Amino acid sequence: MAVRPEPFGALLYHFGTRRLTFLKDPTVLAVVRSLAEHPTARSACESAGVSGPALPAYERALATLARSAMISEREERS
User: Fold this and answer.
1) Which residues contact residue 12 at a Cβ distance below 8 angstroms, ignoring those fewer than 6 apart?
2) What is the DSSP letter of 29?
3) 3-state class of 6 per DSSP?
4) What pTM, to 2 d.p., does this model score?
5) 70 near 1, Cβ under 8 Å?
6) pLDDT in tens, the chain (78 residues)
7) Which of 2, 29, 31, 52 is deepest in the core (most CB within 10 A)?
8) Whole-angstrom Cα distance, residue 39 to residue 73?
9) Closest CA to 58 of 38, 30, 17, 22
10) Cβ contacts of residue 11 below 8 Å, gap of 6+?
11) Are 77 and 58 in contact (CB under 8 A)?
12) How far is CA 64 from the centre of its chain?
């Protein structure tokens, strides 16, 4: 996947499926960009300032990105 910043947020492009996704929420963009740096999606959300009542909305956004294969669960390293 490639992330291209735009004035409205960002475009995500999946090279395998050739799917294009628009991210219009800068916080979702911050979470997506930081996923690799955190052990869980929840900790990436918390690091971006998402917590409490807002967390379920961001969990749904990440689940949607996962269903479209824009993001995926990390493989366990041995």
Assistant:
1) 1, 2, 3, 4, 20, 21, 22, 23, 32, 65, 70
2) H
3) strand
4) 0.85
5) yes
6) 899 989 888 999 999 989 999 999 999 999 999 999 999 999 999 999 998 999 999 999 999 999 999 998 877 655
7) 31
8) 11
9) 30
10) 3, 4, 20, 21, 22, 23
11) no
12) 9
Place of tokens 């807002």: 54
What letter represents residue 7's amino acid?
Answer: P
Please answer whether residues 59 and 48 qualify as being in contact, where contact means their C-beta atoms are separated by less than 8 angstroms: no
- In this structure, what are the phi and psi dihedrals at residue 13, rounded to the nearest 5 degrees? -125, 125
The token pair that represents 35 in the structure block = 């996923």
Structure tokens at 73: 């669960």
